[in-house]
Write a structure and sequence with these properties.
Blueprint (H helix, E strand, L loop, with lengths): L3 E8 L2 E6 L4 E5 L6 H4 L6 H5 L2 E3 L4 E3 L8 H5 L13
Antiparallel strand pairs: 1-2, 2-3, 4-5
């Protein structure tokens, strides 16, 4: 199980994530930012900038309750959807 220890916004919706195993990943979060909880992060710069690490959950979170699976961000698992579902 991947555990995120720090997050840094680099530009746009791209972040640098540090993991407990010592690895560092630079991830463009744009493909994940859709749907009821995450969609607003694609357009609201201030809300996106409020990203933080939840030390209990071991992942990144936002004040609106949105979070992302740290195993997907680490590259260990595929996301449930590769892009927003049609419709």
């Amino acid at each position: 199980m991947a555990i995120i220890t720090s997050v840094e916004i680099l530009h746009d919706r791209t972040v640098r994530l540090r993991f407990a195993d010592g690895s560092v990943r630079i991830v463009d979060l744009t493909p994940f930012l859709w749907g009821p909880a995450l969609g607003c992060l694609a357009t609201d710069d201030a809300l996106f900038a409020a990203v933080a690490v939840d030390r209990v959950a071991g992942t990144i979170v936002w004040p609106n309750g949105a979070d992302l699976d740290p195993d997907v961000l680490h590259g260990d698992r595929e996301p449930a959807f590769r892009s927003a579902p049609a419709g």
